[in-house]
């Protein structure tokens, strides 16, 4: 059996479940575990260091022209002749969508099974792991994998209840300029970590959110995790926020509760990385209860510590 993944999250789950022996091709932005596999999907943004504003303009122009940011190496895909292709239809900015994938697959001599993964909420992402493993004839592997992750989220919930932790008023940003709120599964992650994001769009697309609305909402904790950006990359963009009128008056800023986090814990819907995100959020929201292990601690930073180092 030959499997090709057009979705980094699917690739990550395949590795997490130990099914990588069946994986023959991935995208340019799949996780480091797949570094040696052929890259079938490429992107016009690949290798470029565009700003948030520039990326937004490029996408908007591409969408207006009916063009995709992604393209498929048809010859490489033909040479692999996959039995299964995993794809998605959630965000045409983050990854190649099902329509583009179908176009590429139609050209193949051998027609593979196309398996779209389009989760809307956290439970959907759990079920995606089962969909992946079941398509590969390994459903029991997914069930064992998910059971181990469920233990982590159950522990967090039990600790929040035991400590009667107050629900924190949160905002998580998926993009900095323009500012996007969070959507799909992320509000559910926030809830699982002991917070509520009233500016979010649960089970739906993230949308542009005006700054004055954020100022009025006045989050207790602000988490900044732009899609595709790690902590270091996001820090470069922070002046776009800190220069805004009212920044210094936000409760999160006053109380040093602004955090910058790696995107892959939130906007990459691999259930393992999303559970990492829940653990990280719990540490941000309730540091008096939770202490981050070495891995989780490497995935986010308190912005006030960066400011002190830069003085």
UniProtKB/TrEMBL annotation:
Transmembrane segments: none annotated. SUPFAM superfamilies: Helical backbone' metal receptor. Residues 2-289 form the Fe/B12 periplasmic-binding domain. Pfam families: Peripla_BP_2 (PF01497). InterPro entries: ABC_transptr_periplasmic_BD, Vitamin_B12-ABC_binding. PANTHER family: VITAMIN B12-BINDING PROTEIN. This is Cobalamin-binding protein.
């Amino acid at each position: 059996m030959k499997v090709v993944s057009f979705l980094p999250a699917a690739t990550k789950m395949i590795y997490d479940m130990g099914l990588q022996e069946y994986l023959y091709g991935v995208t340019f932005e799949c996780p480091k575990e797949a570094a040696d596999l052929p890259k079938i999907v490429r992107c016009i943004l690949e290798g470029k260091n565009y700003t948030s504003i520039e990326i937004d303009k490029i996408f908007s122009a591409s969408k207006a022209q009916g063009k995709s940011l992604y393209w498929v190496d048809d010859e490489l895909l033909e040479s692999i002749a996959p039995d299964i292709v995993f794809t998605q239809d959630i965000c045409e900015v983050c990854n190649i969508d099902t329509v583009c994938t179908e176009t590429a697959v139609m050209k193949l001599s051998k027609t593979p099974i196309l398996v779209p993964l389009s989760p809307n909420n956290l439970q959907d992402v759990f079920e995606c792991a089962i969909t992946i493993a079941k398509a590969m004839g390994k459903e029991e592997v997914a069930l064992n994998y998910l059971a181990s992750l469920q233990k982590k989220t159950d522990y967090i919930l039990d600790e929040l209840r035991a400590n009667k932790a107050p629900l924190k008023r949160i905002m998580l940003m998926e993009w900095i300029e323009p500012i996007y709120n969070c959507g799909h599964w992320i509000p559910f992650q926030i809830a699982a970590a002991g917070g509520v994001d009233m500016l979010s769009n649960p089970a739906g697309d993230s949308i542009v959110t005006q700054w004055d609305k954020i100022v009025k909402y006045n989050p207790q904790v602000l988490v900044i995790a732009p899609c595709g950006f790690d902590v270091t990359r996001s820090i470069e963009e922070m002046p776009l926020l800190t220069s805004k009128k009212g920044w210094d008056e936000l409760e999160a800023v006053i109380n040093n509760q602004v955090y910058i986090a790696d995107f892959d814990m939130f906007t990459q819907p691999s259930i393992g990385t999303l559970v990492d995100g829940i653990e990280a959020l719990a540490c941000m929201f309730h540091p008096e209860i939770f202490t981050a292990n070495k891995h989780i601690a490497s995935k986010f930073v308190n912005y006030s510590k960066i400011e002190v180092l830069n003085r």
